[in-house]
Amino acid sequence: MPASIREEVDHLLGAAFTRDMSTRLSCPSCGSAHVAQMLGDNGGVSYVCTACGHSWS
């Protein structure tokens, strides 16, 4: 149990940051986080990097 409210808030913020970073996509070509999700040709999901133009699914 944390000794103070501040410790608890720091713990929760750290967990939220870790979860956010683990779900963020990055371009496999250039590593940029500027990725958009698109609807693919047959209803699948594809992604495109808005920094370099690389697309993948």
UniProtKB/TrEMBL annotation:
Q: Which domain of life is it from?
A: Bacteria
Q: Which Gene3D superfamilies match?
A: FdhE-like domain
| Descriptive protein name | IS1 family transposase
